[in-house]
Amino acid sequence: MAPKTGAETTRGGSPYFFPHATTDLTLEKLHADEGRNFRPADFDAYWDAALGELDGTDPRPERVPNTTISSPGVECFAIIRRLDDPDPRKLLLRQIFLDTAQLARVLFSFDEVDAARVGAMGGSQGGALTIACAALELRIKGEVQFCTGLMDTIFPPSTQFAIYNKITASKTMKLYPDFGHEGLPQESDMTFNFMRGL
């Protein structure tokens, strides 16, 4: 499908048009889009089995002081994972998604972690991993904040809206009509304040 140029939105009942935004769907269609990929019949069984394997895995995490970064009043650690799996039939992203859930479980196991205030964040592929982590580790609850550049050709807006539109938790989306796959104005501050509010 050829990309459409421009993104429409409404504000107070009046249509606005962003002539420089390049999206693969109009903004109206993006708000309703849930993606075009089908959900396999064994989707739930696949991930239930994967989480079952994760339950049977002892990651034996070790917290090692990290001397390469520092922050006043904060102890910094690297978490070393000791897992080897020689089975080449396992999908890479399946393992990466499970790694995010395993890391969340490790963090939840620390006495000094307030389980009611655990959040996950990321941008680009890290944002996708954040969604996977929260979907697989149900103790991560709460709100979702999305920031989307409407000129993004790496992760076109339709891919982001397809995920966003399926999220049933409280959510907000900030749109950047003239930005692509790049740093977005005030995104870091918004994310910091959002996470601080957990």
Structure characterization notes:
The chain has 198 residues and is an alpha+beta fold. The protein contains 6 helices and 6 strands. Strand 1 and strand 2 form a beta hairpin. It is globular and about 50 Å long. The N terminus is likely disordered.
Concise summary:
33% of the residues lie in helices and 19% in strands.
Write the topology of this structure.
Blueprint: E1 4-11, E2 14-23, H1 27-30, H2 43-55, E3 62-65, E4 77-80, H3 92-109, H4 125-136, E5 144-149, H5 157-164, E6 171-176, H6 187-196
Parallel strand pairs: 5-6
Antiparallel strand pairs: 1-2, 3-4
Helix pairs in contact: 3-4
- Give the rounded overall mean pLDDT: 78
**How does the helix and strand content classify structurally?**
alpha+beta
Please mark out the parts with pLDDT under 50 across 5 or more consecutive residues, or reply none. 1-21
Count of individual helical segments: 6
> What percent of the residues sit in helical stretches (DSSP H or I)?
25-40%
Count of separate structural domains: 1
Oligomer: single chain
| Beta-strand proportion | 15-25%
Q: In CATH terms, what is the architecture?
A: 3-Layer(aba) Sandwich
> Roughly how many Å apart are the termini?
40 Å
CATH class: Alpha Beta
Structure summary, number of beta strands? 6
The CATH topology: Rossmann fold
Strand order of the largest sheet: 1-2
Give the radius of gyration.
Answer: 19 Å
The CATH superfamily label reads: Alpha/Beta hydrolase fold, catalytic domain
Outline, from the CA principal axes?
Answer: globular
Please describe the structure with a list of short key phrases separated by commas or semicolons.
198 residues; 6 strands; alpha+beta; disordered N terminus; 6 helices; two-stranded antiparallel sheet; two-stranded antiparallel ribbon; Rossmann fold
